[in-house]
Amino acid sequence: AHIADLVPYPPGKPLEELEREYGITGAVKLASNENPLGPSPKAVAAVREAAANLHRYPDGSGYYLKHRLAERLGVDLAGIVLGNGSNELIDLLVRVFVAPGDEVASSDPAFLVYRKMVQAAAGRNVLVPLRGHRHDLPAMARRVTDRTRLVFLDNPHNPTGSILARPDFEAFLADLPETVLVVLDEAYAEFVRGETPRALDYLGRDRRVVGLRTFSKAHGLAGLRVGYGVMDPEVAGYLERVRQPFNVNAAAQAGALAALDDEAHLRRTLEVTWSGMDRLREGLSALGCRVLESHTNFLMADMGRDAGEVYEAVLRRGVILRSMAAYGYPTWIRITVGRPEENERCLAALAEVLTG
Ligand code: PMP
To answer: Which pTM was predicted?
Structure first.
């Protein structure tokens, strides 16, 4: 029954199908928090090169990628686990630590994959409403029981873009039982402008803290599906026992390795994202929309009217955004920061819809 109750992850149609349906061409897609600059050219070259060996199985241990990450992050190699996107690490954590009836806490709303995996494992989702668009850690602490196994905190948070304050997080950790793992999902960590606790700060000091990172966002490799977790080596050992032997394919390993070395691409990505974010914020404010402060590559804005209708209306004008109606924000839209010309098209479409 817990499987029958699951709702498939909102798949969305292929871009070309949407364009056909709405009679548009050259649509601007600002819906999935992807990198508007595309992948690093170095990653593309590495993937091409890897293609020559597609008849071979990938390196099941992710030797080179793990070594490079360990060196970069200054962490123990044995504490790194690679995944088919960070999504797979969420799945692994739940499969390893959550037995039927066990509890997992997360915010409501938060990244949807947490609750989905918990439900698939017949675990119990303990959903804690946000407070002021941020994780409500005191409320979450009150919901921890002796059945709690995991706490998922997306930091920065999807969809609001808010970040945790260090004193709040430390107070939360101080009261948390030794047996609960706290997963800091840092999918958007590179974009943070400000101070926030990072999993790496706790590694080697607190075995309960697990960090998740991805190549899908700032590194622009969402299509390759590669992410990783950093954690206590003993915790990593459990995930390694369950992990599929070839979960990260050869192209993904090669592309991720090259992307890690392309610091110039990452820097350009951050510059374009931050300046685009500021421009969108200004443009949206001029349209009278309330905008949340965001530490990611997307922002949430209140349209002051039905978000589903705004989504449809801007789509007809060739701009694909995300309605937050299903996340408990019926009048809010989530916009991924694009290239300058994409941001302008988005603002122009919204101006027509909101003031027309
Ligand atoms: N965590 C959060 C908070 C996300 O927003 C996303 C992507 N939408 C992910 C994890 C998953 O990323 P990946 O592509 O690495 O599976």
So the answer is: 0.97
